[in-house]
Amino acid sequence: MNLPGLWDTIEKYLFPGLEELLGGELTNKEKEFVRICTITELDQFSHEFEWCGFGRPPKDHFNIVKAYIAKSVYNFDTTRSFIDFLKSSTKIRRLCGWEFAKQLPHESTFSRVFAEITASQLCQRIHEFLVVKHCGDTLVPHISRDSSAIEAREKVMSEPGAEPKAPKKRGRPKKGEIRIKEKTVVEKQVDRSLEENLKELPTHCNKGTKKNSNGYKVSWKGYKLHLDCIDGDIPVAGLLSSASLHDSQAAIPLAQISAQRITNLYDLMDAAYDSPSIHKFSHLLGHKSIIDHNPRKTGEKKIFDPPEKERYKQRSSVERVFSNLKDNYGGRMIRVRGHAKVMTHLMFGIIAITANQLFKTI
User: Fold this and answer.
1) Domain encompassing residue 100
2) How far apart are CA 21 and CA 118, in angstroms?
3) Cα 165 to Cα 162: distance, rounded to the nearest angstrom
4) How far is it between the farthest Cα atoms of the chain?
5) Does residue 172 fall inside a structural domain?
6) How many domains does the chain have?
7) How far apart are CA 344 and CA 122, in angstroms?
8) Position 254 pLDDT exceeds 70
9) What pLDDT score was predicted for residue 336?
């Protein structure tokens, strides 16, 4: 069913039926939760939590997946506080699948299921399904690419298996000496597959520093979320790296992920991505890259021509997605630890934003 038809079905038939069943009018948040669960077609993923006949039958796993989506929609910072909320909120609890408050699983069960969701990368697959189904057959004008700081409550770690680099040979080469310039990380990524590029990205918790909108340096401990968003403020691809990773090193892996899901014309990025290799890779994908010039070498900043300047304004869509994620869908309140779990927590919010924005584009 297409989105307009799905919208009409939800508004005309599903909401009235649910309100009659639950005995009261649905709030805006409850309606938002129902829309998200409907468009994501969660039922098709429920078989992953079915009992296979070995061990103890899984308890309420599918309901807990829906509860984590609701937790993101209601912007709760902890699972414990959300369980307390479910005990007193009859309608949202029943929408998640529990008729009575005494049926709610213990917090430890929520935590165990969250670990299973993380291990199976369920959230990433749900988001990919959403993007491919509703945007995959559409020619998209712009992709806006950027990153944002994600603060975590865990210890800073050194890079696993990192070896100290040998110091570069100083001075001019001797007569007849040939020095081979090693390729940069971004230059190597152009000729690598997506799997190879993702494997090389650091994912441990460490410290990062970048300039804010006012030009001042800010530092944080944790990770960095990289997103590709299309017109309509719809995130189509994302990855989480160490906080210290430079934005440019995530551009090509992100472009590879997005290219598997959608077809676009223009890649919009800020000056942090101004690299010949990124321009080259964008061209290889058949895209036109519009990247703010970084005057680090020449000292002179290139000016966009009028059409490019007008298109570059669309890059603000990714900034709005980051703001929405952090203000309304749990992006500021990271209580889990470890790269994989932090990514799962953020993906619940990204799924909610994607579903909402898809309905708004109708």
Assistant:
1) 3-120
2) 33
3) 9
4) 88
5) no
6) 2
7) 8
8) yes
9) 94
Supply the pTM of this predicted model.
0.92
Confidence of residue 1 (pLDDT cuts 50, 70, 90): low
Is 78 in the same domain as 146?
no
- Mark whether 203 and 279 lie in a shared domain: yes
3 in Cβ contact with 359 (< 8 Å): yes
Using alpha carbons only, give the angle 48, 49, 53 rounded to the nearest 5 degrees: 105
Q: Are residues 198 and 334 in the same domain?
A: yes
pLDDT band of residue 121 (cuts 50, 70, 90) is very high
Q: DSSP state, 201? A: S
Residue 125 lies in a domain: no
195 and 305, same structural domain? yes
Q: Which segments of 158-215 does DSSP mark as H helices, in order?
A: 185-189, 194-200
Residue 72: which of 357, 356, 345 has the closest Cα? 345
Per-residue DSSP letter, 267? E
Residues 153 and 289 in one domain: yes
Same domain, 79 and 201: no
**pLDDT of amino acid 249:** 96
Within this chain, do residues 110 and 217 fall inside the same structural domain, yes or no? Answer: no
Same domain, yes or no, for 112 and 192? no
- If 0-12 CB within 10 Å is exposed, 13-18 middle and 19+ buried, where does residue 308 land? middle
Distances (CA, A) of 129 to 41, 44, 186, 318: 9, 11, 29, 20
Q: Of all residues in the chain, what percent are helix, strand and coil, respectively (each to 5)?
A: 50, 15, 35
Cβ atoms within 10 A of the Cβ of 225, count? Answer: 24
Express as a percent the part of the chain with pLDDT over 70: 93
Average the pLDDT over each of 45-54, 67-76, 150-159, 165-174 and give the range with the smallest value: 45-54
Beta-sheet strands, E only, within the chain: 139-151, 206-211, 217-230, 234-242, 263-269, 288-291
Report the C-alpha gap between 222 and 153 in whole angstroms: 7
Please give the distance of CA 165 from its chain centroid, rounded to a whole number. 32
DSSP code per residue over 8-34: HHIIIIIHHHHHHHHTSPPPHHHHHHH
Tell whether 168 is covered by a domain. no
